[in-house]
Amino acid sequence: MTCKAPEYNNPTSVEVCQKQRKRAVRKRWILTGTTSAVLSQLTIPMLFAILALFGADLIELYFASRLGVEELTAMSFTLPIQATLFAFAIGLGIVVATRLTQARKVEELAAVSLVFTAIVGSLLALVIWFNLLPILNLLGFDEYSAQQLQVWPSLKAYMQYRLTAVVFFFVVMVVFGVLRAFGNMRAAAWLLVTFSVTQVLLSALLFSPFTQGLLLSGLERLGIAHLLAAIIGFLFSIYLLVVKENISIKVNLLSQQSRQAFKCLMRLLIPVVAIQLLTPIAQSLLMGIVATQGSDAVAAYGVVIRLEPIALLLPMVLTTSLPIFVGQNWEAKKALRVRRSIKLAMLACIVWQLVVASVLFLGADFLSGGFCKQPDVKDAINLAVSVLPISYIALAGVMLYVSCCNAIGRSGLALNFSIVRLFVFSVPSAFIGSYVAGFSGVVWGLSLANFALGACLILYTIMRKQPDSLAKRPVLN
């Protein structure tokens, strides 16, 4: 998008051009700044944002565990559904950010994108709501058992609030992606932090003695807190988009440009979301495997799912910031900067995962006891927290490799690695482990699958380098 000469009698025109110049400066800085400095400034704001987002989910699960093992188990069954919604939100953010950064008329496309996001979110929420119980049953939830029959009404109300919040949450994540694409990492981080902190504060308020008179179950309170936080985050995201980035959201939805934009967004959304849905599908299969081991195993696995993003915090953040650096420098044919950034990111991830694995191993007993006092659930959480984090070193390497492949246009290779990781290594290993040794077998199976995949990635990169080195080697007479 180019900025024409501003009309200096029109303050709005001047301000818009200033915003456009700032975006251009950010892009040049990514290509010329020192690798460590650029990666640090791209990553650190996102570190706090992602920590706040997944930390809020973990605290929500902690409040559920305070209600009882039945509530913790019931909420654990909904985690694959929530992961599916999150995958759609991320996919929408990628699609909209891609189109906005490529479009000449950003303002016209922005409003269409927000309406498109609202439509997709509404349809998805309705589909899940009308099929909620069948979906939960596929995951292993049995509404006829005594414990789950008792908790089903409050779980249904909880999901009602969560699904009502889908449209607002989707808009938050789309604007988050747009701000990142424009290089405004600080505003993007503040958006997620605001949403997450609001959810935590509202949850704490609804569980405080001041609100004990409300005729609401514990799960309903958590659902209401998420809905209100999503509405507040939605209002803040619109403020950032309109006021801070000067992007108008006024549009004629019946115009030909709007119809073309809808078609383009839908065409881009299908493949992107298909890739994003691989992880929720794998989580659903894993939940079904764990459900065969009983409700205690489901409760423990629910905690593990929410702890994993925290343990993988730095690699997850780098998969959002490193592609920005790699993609733009690769396009500018600066391969040396790309290699340097990948080595630096991998070294940081190795150090991070070693520290995280050590802390979780030493504090496993305290952490598991904080979520549940029941011995079987506590022991299961203890085992998972002690064994799985060390294998995340290999998983972090795979995550960075996949994100860099996407950044340089090798999406097919990234898709193949993701499919192999989830459906060739993780799910079969968990299934075999559950058959051999129950829930502990699932934990060990997932850990060994991560290490095996890391070894395959190293072998693959070595084999790719050998032909290149042979081609460059001089022929001796």
TrEMBL record:
It is a multi-pass membrane protein. It comes from Pseudoalteromonas luteoviolacea DSM 6061. GO terms for molecular function: antiporter activity; xenobiotic transmembrane transporter activity. The chain crosses the membrane at residues 29-54, 74-97, 109-132, 161-182, 189-210, 222-243, 264-290, 310-330, 342-363, 383-402, 414-436, 442-463. The keyword Ubl conjugation does not apply. It comes from the Bacteria. It is found in: Cell inner membrane. It holds the Pfam family MatE. InterPro entries: MATE_fam, MdtK-like, Membrane_Transporter-Flippase. This is Multidrug transporter MatE. GO terms for cellular component: plasma membrane. Keywords: Cell membrane, Membrane, Transmembrane, Transmembrane helix, Transport.
